[in-house]
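notes to self, project folder thing:

trying the whole complex as one job this time. last attempt i did each chain seperately and stitching them together was a nightmare. two parts in total, labels are on each line so i dont mix them up again. if this works i'll redo the older ones the same way
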Amino acid sequence: MSDTPNIGFVRHEPIPPSAPPIQQAGMVKWMRENLFSNWINSILTILSIYFVVKIILASTPWMWNGVWTTSSLRECREVLQGTSGACWSVLAERWNQMLFGFKYPVEAYWRPTLAFVFLLVCIAPILFQKLPRNMLIFSAIYPFLAFWLIWGGTVLTPVVVAVSLIVGYLAFVKIERLTGFAAGVLSGVVAVALVLYLGSFVTAALPEFIALEPVASRDMGGFVTAALPEFIALEPVASRDMGGFMLNLILGTVCVSLSIPLGIVLALGRQSNMPIIKGICVVFIEFIRGVPLITLLFVANVVLSYFFPPGTNLDLILRVIIMITLFSAAYIAEVIRGGLAALPRGQYEAADSLGLDYPQAMRLIILPQALKISIPGIVNVAVGLFKDTTLVSVISMFDLVGMIRGPISSSTAWTGIYWELYLLAILLFFVVCYGISQYSQWLERQLRTDHH
Amino acid sequence: MSEAQMKVSDEIAISIENMNKWYGTFHVLRDINLDVQRGERIVICGPSGSGKSTLIRCINALEEHQQGSITVDGTLLSSDVKNIDKVRSEVGMCFQHFNLFPHLTILENCTLAPIWVRKIPKKEAEETAMHFLEKVKIPEQADKYPGQLSGGQQQRVAIARSLCMKPRIMLFDEPTSALDPEMIKEVLDTMIELAEDGMTMLCVTHEMGFARQVANRVIFMDAGQIVEQNEPEEFFNNPQSDRTKLFLSQILGH
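result (full assembly):
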């Protein structure tokens, strides 16, 4: 026992904090750690470098020697004289068709272009919270402005729709305060329908798009509308004349922005205690998810008109938008349901115990957190949806891929040309999708509140 | 603490009569009868699974009861959502795991319910919130997020958040069970201060020191029933039932 050391210890001076050891930096160290850490990795690194170099060496001359100024594939081949080279002239000659489709009037190209520029302005304040909030007013106006720019016709059509939505919203606010959320929504919907119906007498262009009993409205409101279709009108462009990458962008943006709110409603409905609402949502989601999108598009193209009263004629783009929106809403609903399930029970209880009612608890507490968890999944669906818009080429709509497969490839001048056209398609889609994915990662970093 | 500060009025704040609750076929709460006077501070203790948390969660309808009646501040709790919301906005609750809203700052956590439920202007709600954050001694954390605070601080924010609704009754569901020993004291101090202000309180807790100091009634529950209730001195020094004696020997015996 005598050799037990004295274990008593008292620290009188605290140890001051000191700087961490300097990281061993340098290119050589990084390469040794990441590329050549053992012999298998070294072999893999060398092989990868070999293939990358090989691909670059093979493709660069092809791109670099490309011809830009000929007017057909045959001329390209003559110029190239058998050497490797791309025939970029197809892009130089047909870029406008790839972007706008082959029937959109050339002198009106400025309209979709302007709409695209405005689109960037419109989504900026939605994507970046730090921008001035009153920019959102423009975002609210944008859908109607873009519709007018792209489709043309009298400005009254989008104005009537906008007015109906405003009236509907006001009705919702008023009634919600008096009786409650559900009655508010119902009266809002009724108000929208009412104004749309009245509006269809004022503008004759509206019945052509949504076809609210066209004959009746033209008879009853004919004397008013006779002059009005020309009221601040742009040259109208029919939906079947839309095409090219513009069509992909229209379908992509409209469907994404419609399917997220619909997906939220479906996800909440699936969690509902009310058996009928829950049942409808479950059946809808499971049915839509069990069906390929392409069949839904065929339904939109051919079958859907049987479900509407005779005489109604829904625009093809509108039908396709409805189908793609329903399709992706079902997926988004499941993604959001995952986010809702991931929230601890205590968040619901805390919201309840403070006296918040169901819509308030959802809007203020549950959804902000659930959506934050769901961002990667929602973006996944959004990117997939945007690329799936190329499927409309199968129901003979001429989107970017439809243009390449159809009018451009089958024209006598350019038949047999593939690489150059599809490379442009790849590039356009990649830029948009990569942008979306980068934004979502940035947003996730912004929304982190656990430790700064 | 002088008795004058802690006077109990004759007015009934909560009245529970012959209340029964089942989870499926499991009978969790059996024939509960309990009257709480305004200003009374009640500590509920008992072994785990005895139904004490379920009991106070029934009081603000986080759990539904199947038989009997619960009347809070004159409002009968039924399946009527209007009544439930009315009771909830009068009854504050603190949870074992705080349940702060992680996506909102401390200040926003405190102002949210007053602004949306009470319809109080934002400015006024923020002033009230700062007042109560000062009361729980963390006004300097107002702009931080819950994830950046220690457990004790989070629980004090949770208390302040409830107080911002100016409740007439406060429920505490094991408020210190998830905390480190050093943080338990700061939360208990806040609760003692609240008791001194005359708040009607029901606390599920195993902090027997707190019970002795603050409570004017201790209730012991086992197997979903109220086994014994008494004034703290009598309860701790002279327990009547064998089950209470066993429980007290186990939690006070070390």
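what i see at first glance: Residues 1-5 of chain B have pLDDT under 50 and may be disordered.
need to look closer tmrw
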